[in-house]
């Protein structure tokens, strides 16, 4: 498991609510950490697959990634990724509740809300800017208080208008989500239980709230809508053993690495599936630097699931981080044989080869991983190191530029991209990638100077 700091836009509601004062500036990219783990991401794919298929989305393209944030939130900012905070995953109590969250975010993608929100935002900004212009005219005429009133009133009106759109989209996404759950054979009670758990937890007393100063309908409104759907269509879904297993495994792996080892070891016995219990124990013992027990636990899990590439990946991580490099390479090798196209497993294998000094082989493996997942900052660091070790400084700079760009460090990215452009053959794939980063860095620099 790796914690990767990347740059992403804030979630759509949060991004807009920070602009309450004038609504003429959009929140800039914010640094956020992703939790990258092949086991967890595979489990989330298993849970998301029937929902994405019901929504008509590409099940191979749309991914579910975990954000290193303890709050209860999920969001989408592009058409290919659903982001879910680890706090949400650890809080929900059933796979159906987590699948209801995934279905809601999938609905935003399927219903075209991302493109519509961008246009609604532009319209709201135009309204706010008009209010600012009128305020300046009033101020020039000597009406200071009137100017302030015009500006504040127009900005609030623009924000209300935008949030009116997003509230409608949230309701629409809920309706689509329960339809996806029904078509996928997943109990809609997950949606009901989700809203019931958080009903009434709004920040302000409802008597003092302006309902339009929100990006979502209230929890109680959403709960009533979910209950109405359940009453209308009933619940014919059967328990899904596969969903139950992967939900437990995702939560088990997350909690094992995010919570104290003592907590994990006390709670692991509650796990129904013995292999998941052993995996959690292996993770806890590893954090306690007890290699013997960690190894015994993961080997016992592999006796139960001998064809599980993700348990071999964990074994490779445990051995590599204990400097048992040759044994780690062997474990990762088994994982790659079973899952030859998993980019996170390939990245771990390439890292072990790089530590062992097999630089050329590591370079091939890491490039294969990067071709399948360009958003893995740790992979990009290893890839840059491999290029530097073989003397290809141009590609080392290009990859480093991409890594800094992923982390939101565009000034540093621009320095390395400029260096790569000067060293690589013009028009080559690496040169083009560095050129893209350089253009993005220069645009960001111009925006900073205008401010």
What do you see in this structure?
By secondary structure, the chain is mainly alpha-helical. Helix content is 68%, strand content 6%. Helix 9 (241-258) packs parallel to helix 11 (274-287). The longest helix is centred in the middle third of the chain and has 40 residues, at 144-183. The chain is globular, with a radius of gyration of 25 Å.
Q: Main β-sheet: number of strands, strand sense, barrel status?
A: 5 strands, mixed
Residues in β-strands, percent: 5-15%
Q: For the residues shown, what is the average pLDDT?
A: 81
Tell me the radius of gyration. Answer: 25 Å
Regions with little confidence, pLDDT below 50 for 5+ residues:
6-31, 127-142, 144-152, 202-215
End-to-end Cα distance, whole Å, is: 39 Å
Residues in helix, %: 55-70%
**Broad structural category:** mainly alpha
H/E series, N to C? EHEHEEEHHHHHHHHHHHHHHHHHH
Tally of strands: 5
Sequence of strands across the biggest β-sheet? 1-2-3-5-4
- What is the count of DSSP helices, taking H or I runs of 4+ residues? 20
Overall shape: it is globular
What is the oligomeric state here?
A: single chain
């Amino acid at each position: 498991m790796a914690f990767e700091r990347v740059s992403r836009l804030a979630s759509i509601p949060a991004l807009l609510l920070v602009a309450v004062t004038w609504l003429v500036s959009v929140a800039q990219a914010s640094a956020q950490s992703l939790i990258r783990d092949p086991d967890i991401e595979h489990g989330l794919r298993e849970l998301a697959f029937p929902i994405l298929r019901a929504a008509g989305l590409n099940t191979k393209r749309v991914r579910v990634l975990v954000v290193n944030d303890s709050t209860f939130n999920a969001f989408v900012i592009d058409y290919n990724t659903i982001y879910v905070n680890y706090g949400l995953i650890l809080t929900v109590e059933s796979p159906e509740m987590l699948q209801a969250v995934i279905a809601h975010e999938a609905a935003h993608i399927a219903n075209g809300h991302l493109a519509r929100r961008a246009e609604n935002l532009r319209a709201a900004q135009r309204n706010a800017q008009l209010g600012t212009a009128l305020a300046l005219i009033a101020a020039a005429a000597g009406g200071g208080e009137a100017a302030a009133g015009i500006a504040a009133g127009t900005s609030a009106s623009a924000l209300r208008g935008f949030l009116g759109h997003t509230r409608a989209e949230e309701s629409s996404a809920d309706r689509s989500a329960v339809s996806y759950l029904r078509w996928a054979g997943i109990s809609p009670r997950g949606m009901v239980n989700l809203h019931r758990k958080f009903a009434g937890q709004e920040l302000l007393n409802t008597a003092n709230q302006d309902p339009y100063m929100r990006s979502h309908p209230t929890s109680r409104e959403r709960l009533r809508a979910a209950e109405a759907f359940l009453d209308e269509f009933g619940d014919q879904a059967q328990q899904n053993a596969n969903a139950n297993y992967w939900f437990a495994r995702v939560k088990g792996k997350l909690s094992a690495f995010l919570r104290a080892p003592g907590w994990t070891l006390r709670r692991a016995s509650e796990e129904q599936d013995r292999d998941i219990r052993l995996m959690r124990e292996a993770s806890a013992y590893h954090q306690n630097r007890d290699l013997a027990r960690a190894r015994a636990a993961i080997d016992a899990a592999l006796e139960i699931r001998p064809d599980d590439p993700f348990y071999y990946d964990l074994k490779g991580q445990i051995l590599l981080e204990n400097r048992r490099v040759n044994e780690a390479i062997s474990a990762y090798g088994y994982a790659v044989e079973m899952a030859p196209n998993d980019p996170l497993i390939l990245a771990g294998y390439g890292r072990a080869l790089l530590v062992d000094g097999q630089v050329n082989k590591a370079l091939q493996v890491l490039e294969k991983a990067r071709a399948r997942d360009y958003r893995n900052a740790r992979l990009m660091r290893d890839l840059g190191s491999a290029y530097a070790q073989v003397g290809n400084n141009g590609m080392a700079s290009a990859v480093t530029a991409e890594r800094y760009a992923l982390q939101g460090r565009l000034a540093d990215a621009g320095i390395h991209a400029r260096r790569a452009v000067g060293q690589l053959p013009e028009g080559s794939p690496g040169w083009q990638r560095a050129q893209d980063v350089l253009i993005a860095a220069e645009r960001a620099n111009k925006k900073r100077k205008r401010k």
